[in-house]
Predict the 3D structure of the following.
Amino acid sequence: MKIRSALGSGVGRALAAALATVAVVTGVAAVPKAVREGEQAASGELPLGPGTLTETRSTRQLAEGLTHIAIERGEVSADDFWTVTVGVGTTEAEVAELEGRVRAAGHEPRRDATAGPDPAGPADRPLGWLVRVGRYADRAAADQVRSALVGQGLTAAVQHTSEDGNPTTGPWSLDVLMIDPALFRGRLRSELASGIVPGRETTSSVARRTGALAAVNGGFFVITGDRTTPGNWTAGTEGDPAGVSVVGGDLVSEAVNGRPALILPDESGRRAAVRRTRTSVTVRTADGITREVTGLNRQAGLIVNCGGVGTLTPFSHPAHDFTCGNDNELIAVTPKFGTRAPEGTGHQVTLDADGVVTAVRTSRGGSVPAQGSLLQGTGTEAAWLRAHAPVGARLMTRGMVVKTDTDTRVALSSDSSVVGGGPLLLHDGAVALDPVRDGWSPEDVQGSDRALLYNNWYLQRAPRTAAGVTADGRIVLVTADGRRPGHSAGLTVEETAAVLRSLGAVEAVNLDGGGSTAMVVDGELAGIPSDRAGERADGDVLLVLPPAAS
């Protein structure tokens, strides 16, 4: 059984892996008419740095209606340098305390104001002040100072000031995929890394095994599975999507309610949209009793990025990279989780493909039926299962994705995809940033370094991945390299919105970034990963595939 929409498909669907022979054309002058039309909105220079900066673009046609544009802009600024950041303080007392610790370690601190205010205000005051040590021409010198500070018991990170979010000349290195569904005869779809929820896989590996023409990393996910309690981190099953995910028409993961997502009604890419979403999943007994399902394909009691349903603690609104708790959960586990279910205390029932209870268990775990599902309960929901789901009972589980702005259901078919993200970048052609609504508020949890997360993640520059839709229905996928001074400074969230708008998007969503950012074009990585270890294994991938084999 799967969690079905009204138009849902059956469990499982063979993955198409047919390869296509692609003619590659380099240079704008050689681009055919179909490609030129697809780039009309992308012809202006990027709104990054002074208008006098040099910008170069290289264009390749991967298939009719599918174009890759590599953009290089700007140059290293003589005003930027390496430094060591010890922390951020939002009050005079916090800053003074950090400065005192730096002096006690034998170094002289410096205060640098953050590049923007607290989103809750006041607007004329910075969020806080970065407490830093030194100005260095090379990273090696900064690394030495960092090691010394860490040896004195301080937390310290090496940063380049081009990444601070203040004015700079770059440089920037971006890659853009322009997909015109009116011309492109291939397919767009999301794909879970390793094909199931648990586990991670690089975007390059997923692209290779599916025969993709191109691919970008997808939404947020649990990056490690070693944390098993709620808190200011991600916890749960490694690879688990941290937000809404629909793969092949199957609702795989519930939404962080109110956050945006890229919606692909079918694999053609037509009618693609970016919308704020919520999910609604229920189970109904044969005698008409309905119960809310609080989660899909995850460990009970661990709600990454919060924003779910039920009695969440410490709050129910979205909070990025924070794991909320819930002692009373009803979780549906489908074959998309793999063959082994999450384990723990509680109560569990096994349903066949018709929703009939075939087995009960006084704890959570064991096998997931290939043609059925599990319902796992904790706390009050375990008691509800014991009372309403004996062997032989029939339970109908239904799930849907809802656009929150219109409160209308997203019609899902067997080849629909939904990729969750955040924050919302553009809506109706205008910048639509709302960090508090989307879960980046520095005030979520006092004393939990949320101010540092907001500065590092939102205000500062970093590698970014984003998806947008133009007014005429073309899909724009963008990756920006970052954390590579001299190659690419990365983008702030505000710069990411501006870039998508300059490329013609009227609706856009930020996807997972940082070390997760990756674009694959014609079998090769298009950029340089920011992680020193190389390309990061991600939780899901957005694929651009050739036509299905006939």
Residues 92-104 form the longest helix (13 residues). DSSP finds eight helices and 34 strands in the chain. Residues 469 and 475 are 5 Å apart (CA to CA). The helical segments are 33-38, 92-104, 139-151, 203-210, 380-388, 435-438, 450-459, 493-502.
